[in-house]
Specification:
The complex is a heterodimer of chains A (184) and B (90). Chain A has helices spanning 2-13, 27-36, 43-47, 60-68, 71-79, 98-108, 110-118, 153-164, and strands spanning 18-23, 48-51, 121-129, 132-139, 173-180. Chain A is an alpha/beta fold and 184 residues long. Chain A is globular, with a radius of gyration of 18 Å. The longest helix of chain B has 13 residues, at 40-52. Chain B is an alpha/beta fold and 90 residues long. Chain B starts with 28 loop residues before the first strand and ends with a strand. A three-stranded parallel β-sheet of chain B has the order 2-1-3, sandwiched between helices. Chain B is built from two helices and three strands; from the N terminus they run E-H-E-H-E. Classes of the chains: A alpha/beta (184), B alpha/beta (90). At the A-B interface, helix 1, strand 1, helix 4 and helix 5 of A face helix 1 and strand 3 of B.
Amino acid sequence: MSCCMRDAVTLEALGIPTAIIVNDVFEPIAHATSALLRLPDDYVAKNVVWLPHPTSNLTDARAAALIDGRIDAIRDVLLGRTRVAAVAPPAPSEGAPDRESLEAARTIVHGLAESLRADGADLVLSHFEDGTLAGELRIGELTCDDGSCIMPTDALERMVEAMVRPKIASLRGVTLREIRLIPD
Amino acid sequence: MIVVHDPRGGRIAASPTLAARPSSLAGLRLGLLDNGKEKADALLRRTAELLEADGATLTFARKPSFSRVAPQEAIDALKMCDIVVTGLGG
């Protein structure tokens, strides 16, 4: 997802309007990448068309039917037709106890964790203390041979911070420990 | 004079520029950038068929890896396009 968005930004800079079609499991990554790339708040709403995950197991007929149902949305993106009004994010919480902040952070990154699990990894947040959100990136049997389908830990830390900070104002940083799971 | 270098590296100074949108797809050159994930080709080809019916002409490009940005050759192939659809899969 993040690479599709980076490709789109490259093409947009060349003056080429670009629509991104992507599986909905990657929505959290789309918003986080948009924030990291300093794209407008409504960029994802206006330029991404979502498909229900997964799509890799579709027959060609089913894949065609799925696109048939989304083609108007794709046209809307390419022609710049407004589809969804931008929704302002809720005000960040101040002074919430660490336990509440941890639970809030877990909810925020739930979709990101799901997308990592789709590739054989997992994101587990363990505690929130003195403004630091800590957890683990657990890497199991990945869907790619060279590990490149999983974002590097430091990049993932920045992404989690970008996702969580707008909602938890007391967040000062994210620390993730990388753990490689050994198969039985 | 002492020169101090910031070790944190460069930061993006400004928000990326977004291209102006066309008013119609008729006669436009449509590029499709396949990110290499399974079924992305089938989904993008159906997208191409439907947009070709709107009057667009087609250019296809495929990335060697979905976990990396498009190589320069793919970007160069798409530079001649007026609009692009990219994606997808999982």
